[in-house]
Specification:
The chain has three helices and no strands. It is mainly alpha-helical.
Length: 86
């Protein structure tokens, strides 16, 4: 038994474990681009959460009847390397 095998990984906080699970789910679903570095993944997750919050806030606003429907953007994965608009 060598010294390296007895080293233990530091415990992650529950919120970081939840973030990791969410991140992996979003990558698997194609919401966040795969192949990003851990820092880029964290930034992409932050972008996703900001977009989700903005969407929820818009749902709470009173709806205005509009004869023109806004075209939906074609979905693409979130990456800090691309320009992602909320």
């Amino acid at each position: 038994m060598n010294a390296e095998s007895t080293k233990q990984q530091p415990m992650k906080s529950p919120s970081s474990l939840d973030d990791e699970r969410l991140l992996q789910s979003l990558i698997k679903r194609g919401v966040i681009c795969s192949g990003l570095s851990p820092e880029e993944q964290a930034t992409a997750l932050n972008i996703y959460m900001q977009q989700k919050l903005a969407k929820q806030q818009n749902k709470n606003k009173p709806k205005v009847q509009n004869s023109q429907q806004q075209p939906k953007e074609t979905p693409s994965c979130i990456s800090p390397l691309k320009s992602n608009k909320a």
